Amino acid sequence: MTKVALVTGSTSGIGLGIAKKLASEGYHIILNGLNTPDVANVVKEVDDLGTGEVLFSDADMSNPGQIENMMHMIENKFGKVDVVVNNAGIQFVSPIEDFPVEKWDKIIAINLSSAFHTIRLAIPMMKKAGWGRIINIASAHALVASPFKSAYVAAKHGIAGLTKTVALEAAEHNITCNAICPGYVHTPLVDGQIEATAKARGITREQVIKDVMLGEQPTKQFVKVEEIADLVSFLCSDSATSMTGTCLPLDGGWTAH
After folding, report:
1. pLDDT digits (tens, 9 = 90+) for 15-26
2. Whole-prediction pTM value?
3. Is 184 among the catalytic positions?
């Protein structure tokens, strides 16, 4: 029976790369993101890669009610969800004394609380099916901190704790829960961080890339989206049945310091 995978924040960047990988392996895919004019092209691009159906949800991942509606839509359509990849995320860079409260609330809602809501609604379906894979796209910032990113670092540390807790609760139900902790990946989100960090630190864009971002990654290379997608695929495989509750760095050696 064809497996069903939800990937949040999947109309670009890391999420889209993961969705493409799973689509190519025959999964039904639920894409999620902003309902932009380009969405139809993105859906077709993913649909052309595999034999499964591809649906799109524009659920606002900061809104628990919309998340619930999306999960009910998936259950009504497919009767289950086998894989949940919590990837939706936003970023804002600012000294903590100037950090806008509304930005803190939004980042915690999208980067942390949304994962709680998808998981709490997916677990009953996974238990009923006797199989499930939950993969949280965290960050090296789930393991270490950087200045000016208080909300993001707090949310990603929260994801690490949520991952471990869910893994323990679901361990006897053939459901695994793991987090992937990438270093810097060159995506539209990171492009925004480059500009914001340059402004916050009063340095050039080139200095941000060389000294702030890749300065922490001994390989001096951005992590590739395809590497993350391949790790997701592995975590969904039978070879990863006993891997649960882990926070897996994919960071060019950043957290080895």
Report:
1. 999 999 999 999
2. 0.94
3. no
